[in-house]
Inverse folding.
């Protein structure tokens, strides 16, 4: 098989698009001026359809919590005239069919087509040729068997197209076995068992939230007759000359969950792992997990959401799947309801309280956050969630997400519908409806008109639909403001199609209480040369639409993947030619992979519709070609040695909710272990190691044997001191007896004041690895420590120490003491900081400290990184230290490590920071700040963190969380509306604010600092792949740098930093390049220590709340 161009590396996939993106952004204003889309309203299109929703006392939002979810759109060529027609679903009124007459003119043919009005509550629309007669049929979901709603799902079979071009439909759901009556959202047709015909997945939703909140295991194996999701197998057979098609419910035997806690609002079908079989992604509302159903190729699915996805949206609504970075593997997006407007953000409920968040985890639910999630496919069975990095995480109350190519450049852009008539997450609204009087009326069905009138006074805020252009580097640019006259609406279902056959994709949207609208795409009307191709497919007899077909284009390092699946977005589907943008793209080769895995090469013919029919006897496609695309260009591979070393140690983090003490801090300080220390502690020429533990758990001391295995050595002294939290450790001969002793930095923030558990620990070694605790070795130290470094301050040949202060317990934000400790030569130390460096008494909130000889004078210098600070080098000068700032860019620096990155003979610095995958965006102009003061006069400080949203500085914490720390705010701002309008000075008080300690962070990028040989350091931000998470550790691996990161103990508003799975850095011609590790490195890496195992150079990775992992070069 040779029609494909080989691909070099991730470098081409990611680094070059960043350059393209910079040019793109610079031209953005001009592109906006071109008006990429033009609104076409009902007066122009003839589409007068309105999904009219008027609540009454008999049925309303309190009767049915999804009252305002809206309905879908179906797009397809219903009369086979080459123009895409439209079907609109309505909730409480009649559905409608509109025939496309050309030039974006439409005619309502609903009654002529035989679509009979009924009283059903219609939701999702699926367009499918279910009987393979060449005419499109329409499957419409309804809500039934619920209170006044008595509907059932409808299947409109197209029986004929008359001489006037009118399609005629007959409802035949019962005949096909698809007349389900329950709480249906949407249906998707797919060939899940690869037998050639189309089966059906039916997405249903629960209608009861609170009553279903219980341990997830309680619902295992249940199948609810109204709520549970369904999988129907197509059991067609030929009876004489007639083909009988009947669908059979096979849910129970296929791994599909049918429980009553499925709040299914979104469904997408795609070959997510690129193995040739269709998979499913299901977006569930509320506490239930989203489902990632991976096809097992044996007629069953396996939900791998918790294995492959590190976290998901919490209130998942619409979903879509497509390859957005042109590496052949598709990404997943799910919609949620995080506002982007600072006013709406502050008057809305935010994330779960930390304790509730933890309770959901104990109940068996996955990590979930109330924001849009963009899952980057890492091509190894893992996804990195990058919605915040990409800039698509907040689009308010969002429904449809559509991946589509706005401008025919080959990149999938993003369209989002949003808005809801009644904002159920509005704090004032919730307080009103939670009142005893109204709740009593709801329990007794005694709601009166006057109650509805009161409810109508609460927010009903229409929003513009959102447009994001893909810049080619996993960054999206919001061009919504560049869409002229983009109306404010309550928009739900949406579909894209080339409605005017001009070679670009238009958009149609179904609105609540407003006419449906069309966005006409102007990409090709503005250019004399069009750049596209449409592929019209005819599949084999049982699947004439060829649903599941893939079109793969190869161009240099890119692979463009298009999958023919009709269902996208929210409650909508679109059946038509596959549309491919070709602007600036010149494919080397192109192939079609049919649903049965057979493939054929095709020659792309620009600016037309290519009609391609399936033909038998084609060869099978080898999907390993796509899986090998973009494989690391690095010749350095890693091997996992953990099992063969016999090392079996799992760090256990003790449960401690630091946010109960200090609710407003951004992240915990009590979960920064474990630490590692490597040395030959028994004089046998083999390196051993110590691994630290959390409070109430036991550390590990491992002795290496000659065969390369390790045994854990028991040590009573270490066991007795299990109530200490270990934050760092070194081996050092403190008493000059030629035996390496163990010195441990402690803290953890559980303790405060003069508690002995804040003191460092010293264990003397007898030379055989037996350790004895030295009592009273250190002076009084009452801070949480981050690092411990050995020095010789007075050049007496005895080990002195630098102990770095990380934080003051219960007073996060205040600068802690750090200590230069002089060895008293009697196995004790004294504080000599003032004698050697007053600057090092309180340098900052030190996150890491290490020593190296930067200026090659034979003396060890100190390198320090800070939380809410920069990075400093303390050069040893005479009898003291001279501070030399490496960077004044304040960040949340996690570590700084000296390495010769460019291999020029001097020491450079690799530095881990918070990363760029967060809601918190920082810059010199719009910094992230923290104001520290006793704002409410209760004798304890509060830490109020602020950031900028829409150019306005606002508190990061929600109204509810701020009130938890400062109850006086509740009286001062009784209504969330008033709170949302308040400035920072009016919230905290001008005088208090003026007298506050203010910390700032202006820089969150992970970076390297290159030394010019004269201690002048130039900064380079790490490449894109190294900005997805927080990094805590690094180690040199040959001519590469292995990064270790992730941090899960942020407050819930920030969320877990969990997008890293191991990354290698290397420098090439002055530029830093990245490549993912060939091994998946999961979890939170805290330390990486080099160790010699036999004759092999190896690396121990210490992970928080996880087993140790040992790696080596292959």
């Amino acid at each position: 098989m040779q029609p494909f161009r080989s691909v070099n590396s991730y470098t081409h996939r990611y680094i070059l698009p960043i350059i393209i993106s910079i040019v793109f952004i610079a031209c953005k204003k001009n592109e906006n001026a071109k008006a990429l889309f033009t609104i076409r309203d009902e007066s122009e299109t003839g589409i007068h359809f309105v999904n009219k929703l008027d609540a009454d006392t008999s049925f309303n939002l309190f009767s049915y919590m999804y009252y305002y979810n809206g309905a879908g759109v179906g797009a397809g060529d219903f009369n086979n005239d080459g123009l895409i027609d439209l079907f609109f679903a309505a909730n409480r009124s009649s559905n409608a069919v509109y025939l496309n007459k050309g030039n974006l003119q439409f005619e309502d043919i609903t009654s002529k087509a035989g679509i009979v009005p009924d009283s059903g509550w219609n939701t999702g629309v699926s367009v499918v040729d279910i009987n393979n007669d060449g005419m499109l049929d329409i499957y419409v979901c309804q809500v039934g068997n619920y209170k006044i709603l008595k509907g059932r799902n409808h299947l409109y079979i197209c029986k004929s197209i008359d001489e006037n071009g009118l399609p005629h439909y007959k409802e035949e759901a019962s005949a096909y076995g698809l007349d389900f009556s329950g709480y249906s959202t949407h249906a998707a047709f797919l060939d899940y068992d690869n037998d050639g015909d189309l089966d059906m997945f039916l997405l249903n939703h629960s209608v009861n939230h609170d009553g279903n909140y219980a341990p997830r295991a309680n619902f295992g194996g249940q199948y609810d007759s109204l709520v549970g999701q369904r999988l129907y197998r197509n059991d067609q057979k030929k009876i004489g000359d007639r083909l009988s098609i009947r669908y059979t419910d096979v849910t129970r035997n296929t791994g599909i969950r049918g429980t009553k806690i499925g709040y299914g609002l979104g469904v997408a079908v795609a070959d997510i792992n690129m193995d040739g079989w269709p998979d499913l992604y299901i977006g569930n509302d509320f506490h239930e997990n989203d489902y990632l159903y991976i096809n097992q190729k044996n007629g069953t699915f396996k939900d791998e959401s918790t294995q492959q996805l590190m976290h998901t949206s919490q209130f998942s609504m619409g979903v879509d799947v497509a390859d957005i970075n042109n590496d052949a593997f598709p990404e997943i997006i799910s919609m949620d309801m995080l506002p982007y407007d600072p006013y709406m953000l502050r008057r809305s409920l935010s994330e779960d309280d930390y304790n509730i968040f933890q309770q959901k985890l104990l109940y068996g639910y996955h990590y979930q956050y109330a924001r849009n999630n963009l899952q980057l496919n890492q091509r190894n069975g893992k996804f990195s969630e990058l919605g915040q990095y990409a800039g698509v995480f907040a689009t308010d109350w969002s429904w449809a997400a559509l991946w589509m190519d706005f401008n025919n450049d080959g990149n999938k852009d993003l369209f989002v519908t949003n808005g809801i008539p009644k904002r159920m997450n509005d704090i004032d609204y919730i307080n009103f409806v939670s009142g005893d009087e109204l709740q009593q009326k709801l329990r007794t069905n005694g709601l009166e008109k006057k109650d509805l009138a009161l409810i109508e006074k609460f927010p009903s805020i229409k929003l513009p639909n959102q447009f994001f252009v893909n810049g080619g580097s996993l960054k999206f640019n919001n061009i919504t403001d560049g869409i002229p006259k983009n109306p404010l609406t309550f928009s739900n279902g949406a579909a894209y199609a080339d409605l005017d056959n001009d070679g670009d994709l238009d958009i149609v949207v179904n609105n609540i209480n407003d006419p449906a609208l069309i966005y006409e795409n102007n990409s090709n009307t503005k250019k004399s040369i069009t750049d596209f191709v449409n592929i019209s497919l005819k599949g084999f007899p049982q699947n004439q639409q060829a649903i599941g077909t893939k079109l793969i284009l190869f161009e240099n390092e890119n692979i463009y993947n298009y999958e023919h699946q009709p269902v996208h977005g929210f409650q909508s589907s679109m059946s038509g030619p596959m549309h491919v943008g070709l602007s600036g793209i010149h494919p080397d080769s192109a192939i079609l992979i049919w649903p049965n895995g057979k493939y054929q090469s095709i020659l792309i013919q620009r600016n037309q519709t290519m009609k391609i029919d399936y033909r038998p006897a084609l060869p099978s496609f080898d999907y390993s070609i796509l899986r090998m695309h973009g494989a690391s260009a690095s010749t350095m591979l890693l091997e996992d040695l953990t099992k063969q070393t016999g090392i079996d140690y799992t760090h256990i983090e003790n449960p401690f909710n630091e946010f109960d003490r200090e609710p407003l801090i951004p992240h915990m300080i009590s979960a920064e272990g474990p630490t590692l220390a490597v040395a030959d502690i028994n004089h046998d020429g083999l390196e051993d190691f110590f691994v630290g533990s959390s409070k109430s758990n036991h550390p590990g001391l491992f002795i290496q044997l000659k065969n390369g295995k390790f045994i854990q050595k028991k040590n009573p002294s270490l066991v007795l001191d299990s109530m200490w939290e270990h934050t760092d450790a070194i081996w050092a001969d403190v008493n000059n007896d030629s035996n390496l002793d163990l010195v441990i930095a402690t803290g953890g923030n559980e303790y405060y004041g003069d508690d002995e558990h804040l003191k460092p620990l010293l264990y003397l070694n007898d030379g055989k690895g037996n350790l004895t605790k030295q009592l009273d070795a250190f002076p009084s130290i009452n801070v949480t420590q981050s690092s411990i470094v050995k020095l010789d301050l007075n050049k007496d040949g005895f080990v002195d120490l630098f102990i770095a202060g990380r934080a003051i317990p219960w007073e996060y934000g205040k600068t802690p003491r750090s200590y230069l400790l002089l060895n008293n030569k009697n196995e004790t130390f004294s504080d000599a900081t003032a004698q050697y460096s007053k600057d090092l008494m309180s340098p900052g909130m030190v996150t890491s400290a290490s020593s190296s000889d930067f200026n090659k004078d034979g003396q060890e210098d100190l390198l320090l990184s800070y939380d809410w600070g920069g990075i400093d080098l303390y050069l040893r000068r005479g009898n003291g230290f001279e501070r030399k700032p490496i960077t004044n860019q304040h960040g949340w620096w996690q570590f700084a490590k000296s390495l010769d990155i460019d291999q020029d003979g001097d020491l450079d610095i690799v530095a881990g920071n918070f990363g760029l995958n967060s809601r918190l965006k920082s810059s010199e102009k719009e910094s992230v700040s923290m104001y520290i003061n006793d704002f409410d006069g209760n004798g304890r400080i509060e830490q109020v963190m602020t950031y900028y949203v829409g150019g306005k500085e606002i508190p990061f914490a929600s109204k509810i969380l701020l009130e938890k720390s400062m109850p006086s705010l509740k009286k001062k701002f009784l209504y969330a509306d008033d709170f949302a309008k308040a400035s920072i000075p009016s919230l905290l008080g001008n005088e208090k604010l003026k007298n506050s300690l203010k910390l700032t962070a202006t820089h969150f990028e992970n970076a390297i600092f290159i030394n010019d040989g004269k201690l002048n350091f130039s900064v380079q931000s790490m490449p894109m792949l190294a900005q997805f998470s927080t990094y805590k550790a690094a180690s040199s691996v040959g001519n590469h740098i292995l990064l270790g990161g992730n941090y899960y103990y942020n407050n819930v508003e920030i969320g877990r930093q969990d997008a890293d799975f191991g990354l290698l850095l290397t420098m090439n011609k002055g530029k830093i390049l990245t490549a993912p590790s060939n091994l998946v490195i999961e979890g939170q890496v805290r330390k990486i220590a080099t160790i010699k195992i036999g004759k092999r150079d190896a690396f121990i990775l210490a992970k928080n709340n996880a087993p140790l992992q040992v790696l080596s070069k292959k």
User: Anything to note?
Assistant: The chain has 20 helices and 74 strands. Residues 1-33 have pLDDT under 50 and may be disordered.
